[in-house]
């Protein structure tokens, strides 16, 4: 069962999570398929605060993990913010937060900032995602877009103003573009694979930028000529009020789905999602327990929130890094 819209719609930029007790330390775990995996009996006395920030795309998964972890460790407070991948790295590389969510790899200059501040870290992949190109459900003319057409729409100084500028038989109506903002890892990834360089994108009055994917969802939902992109989980939770656009990279139109993202046929917009953890913070029992819990449960929870689980060996490799 999918987690409700509370995970991805209408949430503030940070949320305080502190759940109820998961039972006494002597309880025997039940062998249910989606029961979160942990060693609650050994970790029952954990306490402290873990602050997380970063990618709005990774947020639903990390928030779900934090909620489940909090239900077993009521004395550990986990806060999860949404400042975008870039915003998260700014805080992470100065040692302000223990963990950051990232929908792109750390940039060389960000890694240099971390080094200059004495921050050593571990990168852990947690799920797969496929960037989803979206239009309003009233749009009955866009059946698919090619990678070249996406470039024409989103490239710097784009001359595409109306739908008819893409294909002559489409309406001569202004396109309203909704795009992740400059601090978003989704923006970095999309602009790199579509426009050839990260951060290179059109910036004109027809574009609305936001680091919050919920704002993009609401914008496209309320605008007949809306067009935008964001992580697959946000489409999954809002598919009754959005229209997904198949993408043709040369082998015919393909829509993102767990199957096409996992097998690589949805290209070039499939990508891994990651968390970065401060190694010094990882020495704290509550942080170590949380990250172990995260990797042990990311597969099931990623599917619950609309992403695609990694192969088990990748989670095992991540757990090995923590030892």
UniProtKB/TrEMBL annotation:
One of its GO terms (molecular function) is phosphate ion binding. It is a lipid-anchor. Residues 40-296 form the PBP domain. Residues 22-46 are annotated as: Disordered. InterPro entries: PBP_domain (IPR024370), Phos-bd (IPR011862), Phosphate_ABC_transporter (IPR050811). PROSITE patterns: PROKAR_LIPOPROTEIN. Keywords: Cell membrane, Lipoprotein, Membrane, Palmitate, Phosphate transport, Plasmid, Signal, Transport. GO terms for biological process: phosphate ion transport. Residues 1-26 form the signal peptide. It is found in: Cell membrane. Residues 26-39 have a biased composition (Polar residues). The complex is composed of two ATP-binding proteins (PstB), two transmembrane proteins (PstC and PstA) and a solute-binding protein (PstS). Part of the ABC transporter complex PstSACB involved in phosphate import. PANTHER family: PERIPLASMIC PHOSPHATE BINDING COMPONENT OF PHOSPHATE ABC TRANSPORTER, PHOSPHATE-BINDING PROTEIN PSTS. This is Phosphate-binding protein. It comes from Paenibacillus lautus.
């Amino acid at each position: 069962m999918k987690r409700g819209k509370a995970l991805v719609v209408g949430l503030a930029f940070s949320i305080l999570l502190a759940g109820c007790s998961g039972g006494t330390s002597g309880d025997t775990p039940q062998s249910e398929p989606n029961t979160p995996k942990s060693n609650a009996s050994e970790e029952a006395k954990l306490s402290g605060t873990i602050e997380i920030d970063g990618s709005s795309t990774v947020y639903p998964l990390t928030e779900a993990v934090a909620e489940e972890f909090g239900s077993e460790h009521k004395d550990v407070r986990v806060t999860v913010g949404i400042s975008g991948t870039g915003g998260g790295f700014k805080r992470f590389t100065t040692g302000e937060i223990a963990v950051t969510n990232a929908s792109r790899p750390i940039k060389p200059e960000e890694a240099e900032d971390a080094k200059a501040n004495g921050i050593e870290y571990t990168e852990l992949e947690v799920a797969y995602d496929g960037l989803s190109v979206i239009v309003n459900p009233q749009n009955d003319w866009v059946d698919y877009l090619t990678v070249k057409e996406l470039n024409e729409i989103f490239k710097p100084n784009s001359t595409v103003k109306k739908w008819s500028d893409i294909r002559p038989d489409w309406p001569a109506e202004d396109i309203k573009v909704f795009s992740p903002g400059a601090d978003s890892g989704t923006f970095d990834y999309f602009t790199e694979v579509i426009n050839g360089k990260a951060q290179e994108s059109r910036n004109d009055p027809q574009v609305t930028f936001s680091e919050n994917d919920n704002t993009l969802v609401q914008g496209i939902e309320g605008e007949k000529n809306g067009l935008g992109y964001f992580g697959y989980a946000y489409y999954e939770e809002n598919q009754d009020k959005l229209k997904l656009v198949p993408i043709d990279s040369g082998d015919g139109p393909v829509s993102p789905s767990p199957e096409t993202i996992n097998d690589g046929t949805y290209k070039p917009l499939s990508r891994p999602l990651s968390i970065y953890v401060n190694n010094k913070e990882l020495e704290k029992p509550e942080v170590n327990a949380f990250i172990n819990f995260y990797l042990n449960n990311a597969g099931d929870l990623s599917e619950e929130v609309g992403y695609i689980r990694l192969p088990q060996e990748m989670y095992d490799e991540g757990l090995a890094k923590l030892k």
